[in-house]
Amino acid sequence: MIETLLIVASSVGLILFVAFVASRLLRSRRAGLSIRMQIFLALAGIVGAFALGLGVLVVDRVNARATLLAEESARSEASAVAALVESEMEIKGKTLPEVARDFGSMGQEVRMTLLDAEGRPVLARDAVLREQKGIVVATEPIRVHGSEVGAVRVEKPTIVVERMLADFAPSVLLVSAVLGAAAALAAALIGRTIASPIEKLSDFAVLVSEGDRRTTSPVAQGREVQRLTHAIDSMRRELEGRPFVETFAADLSHELKNPVAAIRASAEVLADGALEEPEEAARFVARIQESTTRIEALLRELLSLARLEARGIDDARVIDLFDVVRDAATRAEERGAKLTVSGETAKVRGDPAWLARLVENLVDNAVVHGEDGAVIAVELAAGDETHALTVRSRGEILRHVRSRLFKRFVTTRADKGGSGLGLAIVRAVAEAHRGTVRCKTFGPPEVSFELRLPAA
User: Where are the beta strands (DSSP E) in 280-396?
Assistant: First the structure.
């Protein structure tokens, strides 16, 4: 019963295994064959073939050994019968036909044939055995006074051998299945050991290509993988600074170009005689002051962002994020924003000033880019591992800036004082606090940003 269950379980497992391998091979036609599957197929195939060959060899050797034992038994019986016939003929003087009649009168089953000197059967009992498969035959000569007067041929069925093999085959099958399963498991583990570092390095490279500066190189196991990891990380650090400086300088010069041009043009107009007209002079002076204020705000934001990215947060302590959100919302309302605040106590570890700056930037972004007069909803949801802060407003984010929202100098409302650094600071503050920020919905009708910070 147990062996039957084991055979059924092995058969089901083999079917599932074949189906799994077939599905992976079909998928590899589109995406290519992975390293894991290559190693798995190679090792599993080698060990599986070994297990199958071992099983076939064992069954073959057992069959040969059992047949040899049956032949030896038949030969021994033929020798014994031949000796008995020789004794009857030498001592009692009987002829071979007389001895055959004596054997024929026995009630017991006789599985032999007595042959005369010409090879003709004198006595044949149970001759039907000669027509069956799985029969071993042994022939011994009958010698009387040194002359060969006939022979004894004994036939033995090998049904016992067949039954023994039938009983032995499930055990061989079970051993082969266990070896095959062990080979598959070992192949899977080896493939995982080899492919896992490559997959981690691939994920690391994808995060770096997406601009995630918080990501760190994966922990490498093995001398070769360590060298590869260190080489990729060093290359990333070398290449990261060069395009950043170039892009930063280009973006900064682009942002400063308009206010500087406005200051130069206003100064030229004033120098050409506008000073003699008070109204014109006042208008151009106001334009100079406006451009100067814009430059000062831009430089102030850049310095804050650079300091945060270089040093991180200095004053980190456990605080209630809801208190920070409520205070930031109050200040936004004093500037004319319409807000609704909901939430609960949410403890985080961080800098209150930077977190307040983050909330204010999200609210200001909603005010500047949302519909005029619309109510902005600020919601804080506490969780066991992370807390979620969501800022919702009515409006729409244009499709061409959706993928660049959190990069420097990306803005669509420069006419309202947008510098394009607000969301970049939001992202830097979130990353400095081991959190994440994303735009959940781009609108219309609603735009929502979600900040997630780990619970303290």
Answer: 317-320, 339-342, 347-350, 376-381, 386-394
CA distance 359 to 451: 9
413: exposed, middle or buried (Cβ count in 10 Å: 0-12, 13-18, 19+): exposed
- Distances in whole angstroms, Cα of residue 356 to Cα of each of 313, 353, 418, 447: 13, 5, 19, 21
* The two three-digit tokens of residue 140, written as one number: 């011994």
Work out the burial of residue 36: count CB atoms within 10 Å of its CB; fewer than 13 is exposed, 13-18 middle, 19 or more buried. Answer: buried
Of 182-196, 350-364, 413-427, which has the strongest mean pLDDT? Answer: 350-364
What gap in Å lies between CA 88 and CA 79, rounded to an integer? Answer: 14
Please choose, from the candidates 180, 172, 232, the residue with its C-alpha nearest in 3D space to the C-alpha of residue 207.
232
Q: Which two structure tokens, joined as six digits, stand for 51?
A: 């297990």
Residue in the structure block whose two tokens are 């060069």? 242
Q: How far apart are CA 234 and CA 229, in angstroms?
A: 8
Q: What is the pLDDT of residue 31?
A: 56
Q: Whole-number mean pLDDT of the chain?
A: 76
Cα 162 to Cα 168: distance, rounded to the nearest angstrom: 10
What SS3 class is residue 116?
A: strand
Sorted by where each starts, the structural domains of the chain and their CATH numbers stand as 2-160 (no CATH), 240-309 (1.10.287.130), 312-454 (3.30.565.10)
Q: What angle do CA 23, 26, 30 make, to 5 degrees?
A: 130
Entry field: residues in the chain: 456
pTM for the predicted model, two decimal places: 0.46
pLDDT, average across residues 203-228: 67
Residue 403 has, within 13 A of its CA and on its CB side, a CA count of: 3
- Residue 452: beta bridge partners? 388, 436
Query: Cα separation of 284 and 271, whole Å?
Result: 11
Label residue 446 by pLDDT band (50, 70, 90): very high
CB–CB of 17/153 below 8 Å? no
Q: How far is CA 211 from CA 51, 215, 349, 394, 428, in A?
A: 51, 9, 25, 29, 12
pLDDT band of residue 319 (cuts 50, 70, 90) is: very high
Which H or E run contains 135?
strand 135-144
pLDDT for 414 equals: 57
Which pLDDT band holds residue 135 (cuts at 50, 70, 90)? confident
Give 135 or 128, the one with higher predicted confidence.
135
DSSP class of residue 219 equals: P
